[in-house]
């Protein structure tokens, strides 16, 4: 008799110790601000859980999201992710190709209908019948609609699948849209970022497998545990902002002293993400710590919100021509009014 | 386009254009008006010392009325100085001006800005209360007075809320703050806020006239 493919057995087969597994669960519970007891509950639930079937569809994307996840600095984390889930279809990672790959996807969808987790990275082109991105001759749109039907939930990984991302940027030649623009009848969680933090992807997967539901989401369907605070609020350079100490260029004394990058266009104050707390590469650093302002990559339309180097208070457009034209128009109207008034005064004087 | 993009984009562009148009229209219209010819013998050869003297003397309460006017004038000074500190001393505001004019100057620490903002808000509330309670002031007040107060109060209040992240998400508060500034810019040339541009012109011309006539300033 075949034993059910439970996670505990899978971990044991891979030689992952209970200690390492508990460490992972504690880290995940801590990341998501769950109480300390949740780590043990998570470990218990995960051990007994069947490996979650995951179908990962990649559409208009750069593979940066998958790169982020697989090239995670912490191999144990990466290993656990792949032991925790049964990744039944992922074009970049799977060995199969062509008909065999598509058949594996269809088989997995049939076997776990209504239970599998659908992960999507990349936006979906809709212009001209979606011809700008197809897989095995099927448009991304049709592929998504078909796969979404049997999904328990959908996780849009990366800004492209969450909000349209760079393909959606003006002039959006392919008519790129997000997953939630197409699928309306399934629970969808957005994990935006260009790319998203690997630990965030792992954290939300662990939560879904443990509790069988998506975590609490914000107004943009992002998990609140990771996207509740702005980068600015959690930034280690925040005290310099409060003191009014700013780097004026990327190589001045302020920059060398680690002062706030607000004047260099940092979008931290309007960007919700966990970069400043979880950081990247195993907690080594994040863009601001490396000396560059936040681009706001986990926010919708971040590519169309003006230059990355334009500070937030500065108007988006160059208003000089319109202000000059308006001022000249004002002078012309004011002068005309004064001339009319002078003529009127002269005529009154002459009448007297 | 989200609310912040709208505020930083079309809303600010239109507000700045209306502000520039209105300011130049009114200033050109007033400054180019025909002056009434004065045929009297001038008492003094130059009139500009009188202009300067009156600008200074009218900026201070007269000794005879000090008990009745000191409170109002003190309030006026408090919120005007507070506004100047907030508008011209806060780093993000300096960036805004630098983006428009290319001019740059050192900013003040945020603690000073927050304190000034709070004092300004308090003073503006007292100013409104006084206008509503004082029978003469109330009788003299019209829509322009109340709306000008509102468009001055709103950017300070929304700016303080944005800084404190109170009431809504930061980007929403920032967008509302920028929109309130846009409203201020649109109203500025056409309401009583225009006194900012005309106060010294009118006092100066009155002082120059007094000097010419030899009146006591």
TrEMBL record, chain A:
Enzyme class label: oxidoreductase
PROSITE patterns, A to Z: TAT
Annotated Gene Ontology cellular component terms: [Ni-Fe] hydrogenase complex; cell envelope; ferredoxin hydrogenase complex; membrane
Domain of life: Bacteria
Amino acids binding [4Fe-4S] cluster 1: 62, 65, 160, 194
Domain Cytochrome-c3 hydrogenase C-terminal: 227-308
Reaction(s) the record says it catalyses: H2 + A = AH2
Subcellular localization(s) per the UniProt record: Cell envelope
Keywords: 3Fe-4S, 4Fe-4S, Iron, Iron-sulfur, Membrane, Metal-binding, Oxidoreductase, Signal, Transmembrane, Transmembrane helix
Any one GO molecular function term: hydrogenase (acceptor) activity
Subunit and partners: Heterodimer of a large and a small subunit.
Cofactor: [3Fe-4S] cluster; [4Fe-4S] cluster
GO biological process: anaerobic respiration
EC number of this enzyme: 1.12.99.6
Main localization of the protein described in the UniProt heading: other
The name this protein goes by in its record: hydrogenase (acceptor)
Domain spans labelled NADH:ubiquinone oxidoreductase-like 20kDa subunit: 62-207
InterPro entries associated with the record: Cytochrome-c3_hydrogenase_C (IPR027394), NADH_UbQ_OxRdtase-like_20kDa (IPR006137), NiFe-Hase_small_C_sf (IPR037148), NiFe_Hase_small_N_sf (IPR037024), NiFe_hydrogenase_ssu (IPR001821), TAT_signal (IPR006311), TAT_signal_bac_arc (IPR019546)
Family annotation (Pfam families): NiFe_hyd_SSU_C, Oxidored_q6
Binding, [4Fe-4S] cluster 2: 232, 235, 260, 266
Transmembrane feature ranges: 21-43
Species, as recorded: Sulfuriferula multivorans
Automatic annotation (TrEMBL), chain B:
Residue spans crossing the bilayer: 12-33, 70-91, 111-133, 145-166, 172-190
InterPro entries cross-referenced by the UniProt entry: NarG-like_sf
Keywords: Membrane, Transmembrane, Transmembrane helix
Top-level taxonomic group: Bacteria
SUPFAM superfamilies: Respiratory nitrate reductase 1 gamma chain
Protein name in UniProt: Protein DVU_0532 (HMC operon ORF 5)
Upper lineage: Bacteria, Pseudomonadati, Pseudomonadota, Betaproteobacteria, Nitrosomonadales
């Amino acid at each position: 008799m075949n034993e059910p493919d439970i996670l505990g057995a899978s971990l044991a087969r891979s030689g992952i110790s209970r200690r390492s597994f508990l460490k992972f669960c504690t880290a995940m519970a801590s990341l998501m601000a769950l109480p300390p007891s949740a780590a043990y509950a998570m470990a218990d639930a995960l051990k007994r859980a069947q490996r979650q079937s995951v179908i990962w569809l990649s559409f208009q994307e750069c593979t940066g999201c998958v790169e982020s996840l697989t090239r995670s600095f912490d191999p144990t984390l990466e290993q656990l992710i792949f032991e925790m889930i049964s990744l039944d279809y992922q074009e970049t990672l799977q060995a199969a190709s062509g008909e065999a790959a598509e058949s594996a996807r269809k088989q997995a969808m049939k076997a776990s209908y209504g239970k599998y987790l659908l992960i999507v990275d990349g936006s979906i082109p809709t212009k001209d019948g979606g011809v700008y991105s197809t897989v095995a001759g099927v448009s991304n749109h049709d592929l998504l609609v078909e796969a979404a039907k049997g999904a328990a939930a959908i996780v849009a990984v990366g800004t492209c699948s969450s909000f349209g991302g760079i393909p959606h940027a003006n002039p959006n030649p392919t008519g790129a849209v997000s997953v939630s623009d197409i699928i309306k009848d399934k629970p969808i969680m957005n994990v935006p970022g260009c790319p998203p933090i690997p630990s965030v992807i792992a954290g939300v997967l662990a939560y879904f497998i443990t509790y069988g539901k998506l975590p609490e989401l914000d107004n943009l369907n992002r998990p609140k545990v990771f996207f509740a605070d702005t980068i600015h609020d959690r930034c280690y350079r925040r005290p310099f902002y409060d003191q009014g100490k700013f780097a004026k260029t990327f190589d001045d004394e302020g920059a060398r002293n680690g002062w706030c990058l607000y004047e260099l266009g940092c979008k931290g104050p309007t960007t919700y993400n966990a970069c400043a707390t979880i950081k990247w590469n195993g907690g080594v650093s994040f863009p601001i710590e490396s000396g560059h302002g936040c681009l706001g990559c986990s926010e919708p339309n971040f590519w169309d919100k003006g230059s990355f180097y334009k500070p937030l208070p500065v108007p988006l457009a160059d208003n000089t021509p319109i202000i000059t034209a308006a001022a000249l128009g004002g002078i012309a109207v004011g002068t005309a009014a004064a001339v009319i008034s002078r003529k009127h005064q002269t005529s009154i004087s002459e009448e007297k | 386009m989200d609310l912040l993009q709208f505020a930083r984009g079309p809303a600010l562009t239109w507000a700045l254009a209306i502000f520039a148009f209105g300011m130049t229209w009114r200033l050109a219209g007033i400054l180019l008006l025909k002056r009434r010819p004065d045929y009297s013998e001038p008492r003094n050869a130059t009139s500009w010392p009188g202009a300067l003297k009156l600008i200074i003397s009218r900026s201070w309460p007269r000794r005879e009325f000090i008990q009745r006017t000191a409170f109002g004038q003190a309030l006026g000074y408090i919120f005007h100085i507070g506004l100047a500190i907030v508008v011209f001393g806060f780093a993000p505001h300096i960036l805004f001006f630098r983006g428009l004019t290319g001019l740059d100057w050192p900013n003040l620490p945020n603690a000073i800005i927050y304190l000034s903002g709070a004092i300004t808000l308090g003073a503006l509330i007292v100013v409104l209360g006084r206008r509503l309670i004082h029978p003469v002031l109330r009788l003299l007040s019209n829509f322009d007075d109340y709306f000008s107060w509102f468009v001055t109060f709103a950017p300070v209040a929304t700016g303080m809320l944005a800084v404190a992240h109170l009431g809504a998400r930061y980007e929403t508060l920032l967008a509302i703050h920028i929109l309130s500034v846009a409203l201020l810019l649109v109203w500025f040339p056409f309401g009583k806020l225009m006194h900012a541009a005309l106060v010294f012109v009118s006092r100066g011309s009155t002082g120059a006239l007094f000097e010419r006539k030899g009146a006591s300033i």
